[in-house]
Amino acid sequence: MNKINKVNKKILLLSSFLLLMILMVGCLTLVPVIDIATVEEIDIMILESFPVQVHLVASGYLPDPCTKIHQITQEMEDYHFSVTITTYRSPGVCIQIIAPFEEIIPLEVYGLPAGTYMVEVNEVQGTFDLEIDNIFPI
């Protein structure tokens, strides 16, 4: 009976080790990773000022707490803002649990003519209106 217990303990230990290794492989990154952030929602806030200021609030989640916001870029062409939020994950082991984020991004709206503008952040879209040209009169 004692031999059976030793064999069972070895099987249990080996099984536990294999399970731990399988879980670790899912949590292990060998090289740095730059990726696009998962954005779930955007809110566009028009501040009461002149010239008008527009802030974009982007919220979403990161795949793990070791991933951080890396860079935020914006381009504007023909009444369309394109904002890209990228992430950076350094090499190593990290727990696999999503981490929420929220970024407030001032849009570059000074000097723009009145009109309706579309904003796209990592494929999530919204619009805002500038009621008047956004420039100080000369």
What distance separates the N and C termini? 97 Å
The amount of helix comes to 10-25%
H/E series: HEEEEEEEEEE
Helix and strand composition category? alpha+beta
Oligomer: single chain
Tally of individual helices? 1
Shape descriptor: rod-shaped
**Number of domain modules:** 2
Using the CA coordinates, give the radius of gyration.
Answer: 24 Å
- The number of strands is 10
> What portion of residues belong to β-strands?
over 45%
Query: Runs with pLDDT <50, length 5+?
Result: none
Q: Major sheet, described briefly?
A: 5 strands, mixed
User: Taking all residues together, what is the mean pLDDT?
Assistant: 88
Structure description:
- The strands form three sheets. Strands 2, 5, 6, 9 and 10 form a five-stranded mixed beta sheet that branches. This protein has a three-stranded antiparallel beta sheet with strand order 3-4-8, with no helix packed on it. The protein has a two-stranded antiparallel ribbon with strand order 1-7.
- The protein is rod-shaped.
- The mean pLDDT is 88.
- It is an alpha+beta fold and 138 residues long.
- The protein folds into two domains: 1-30; 33-130, no CATH class.
- It starts with a helix and ends in an 8-residue tail after the last strand.
- A hairpin with a 5-residue loop joins β3 and β4.
- It is built from one helix and ten strands; from the N terminus they run αββββββββββ.
